[in-house]
Amino acid sequence: MAGSQEVQGVKQAIVDLDEAHIGELVRKAVAAGATTKDIVENGMRAGMTEVGQKYEAGEYYLAEFELSANVMARGLATLKVMVPWESGTGETVVLATPRGDLHDMGKSLVASLLATSGYKAVDVGIDTPPEKVVEAVSGNDARAVGLSLVLASSIEEARAIIDALGEAGLRDKVKVIVGGVVASKDVAEGIGADAYVQSAFDVVPTLNEMLQATRTS
């Protein structure tokens, strides 16, 4: 595989939390002929997987886990400038962490992946009340909403967001995806979301599939 050594360098930078050199390593991988998919899947995703394993083993703590996501986001930003990835549809996705939750890590990573994949990501932030999500969906003609659920209280707050979209007459116009520590398929079904994603890397293919289905139905 062209650029395999350079792709491994990208992976190692994420594992080593090397934010200073990730951009340079991504540029080297592109120059060596590595594809966008190889860099993202075999470099970045593989790196984040190893970080996750270190976190579960107690070798890394939350601070290191969050820093690894920042390293990857910087690498994605470099990749987007060099080789725009147009696998998305150009449609708008609103991202939010529900009210009462101040965690931003997973959502920021999803925003980077969406942007790299051709979507327009509108990140309305953390501690987000339902009305702010409704406003963002309406004002940006969004096709989907992604909610990051880290705290147990976020489940009911996510339900409140989905209910607010319904009250505003917008629920049928958007697909709602949930992910995060306390999210699950059962949680998604219980609060009326359309899909659950286990990983940030699953968001783009899930969106592609759901939005394609709405266009062909």
What would you note in describing this structure?
With 217 residues, this protein is α/β, with parallel strands linked by helices. A 5-stranded parallel β-sheet has the order 2-1-3-4-5, sandwiched between helices. The model has no long low-confidence stretch (mean pLDDT 90). It is globular. The chain folds into 2 domains: 4-82, Orthogonal Bundle (Methyltransferase, Methionine Synthase (B12-binding Domains), Chain A, domain 1); 92-216, Cobalamin-binding domain (Rossmann fold). The relative contact order is 0.11. The protein is built from 9 helices and 5 strands, in the order H-H-H-H-E-H-E-H-E-H-E-H-E-H.
Across the major sheet, the strand order is 2-1-3-4-5
CATH arch. level architecture of the largest domain: 3-Layer(aba) Sandwich
Question: Which topology of the largest domain does CATH recognise?
Answer: Rossmann fold
CATH H level, superfamily name of the largest domain: Cobalamin-binding domain
Name the overall outline: globular
Q: How many helices does DSSP assign?
A: 9
Topology pattern, helix = H, strand = E = HHHHEHEHEHEHEH
The overall strand count is 5
Helix/sheet category: alpha/beta
Q: Mean of residue pLDDT?
A: 90
Proportion in helices: 55-70%
Low-confidence stretches: none
Count of all domains: 2
- State the CATH class of the largest domain: Alpha Beta
